[in-house]
Each structure stands twice: as C-alpha cells, then as structure tokens.
Design goal:
The chain is mainly α and 67 residues long. The protein has 2 helices and no strands. Helix 1 packs antiparallel against helix 2.
C-alpha cells in the first residue's frame, strides 16, 4: 500500500510541478511588473520535479525489492 502511495504521490508532484511552471508563465491582465519573479518559478518547478522523481523511484525500487 505504501508503494502505491509513493508512486501516485510522485506522479502528482511531477504533474503539479508542470502546472506551477505553466501558471508562472501564463499571461495575466494588469501592469507589466505584476508577475512573479522568474527565479522563484524555476526553484518551485525544480524542487517539485526532483521530489516527484525521487518518490516514484523509491516506490518502484520498493516494489522490485519485495519481489
């Protein structure tokens, strides 16, 4: 059960990292300087992507180790 949660949670983290990247660069209405700082968008993207990959790898390796 724990391995399924790790794999599903990792996939959700990977998906949410791309949603953060998309939301950070989607155009908005308002003044030009009203957007997010580009560095913070990439830091959030990278940390969520790396965390998701680690969760998926941990889940897959745990499944292989049980067999």
């Amino acid at each position: 059960m724990r391995t399924k949660i790790l794999i599903i949670g990792g996939c959700l983290l990977i998906l949410s990292s791309f949603l953060v990247l998309y939301a950070g660069y989607s155009p908005r209405v308002g003044p030009v300087g009203n957007g997010q700082i580009s560095m913070f968008v990439w830091i959030g993207f990278a940390s969520q992507l790396i965390g998701g990959i680690c969760f998926v790898l941990t889940g897959v390796l745990t499944v292989k180790q049980k067999k």
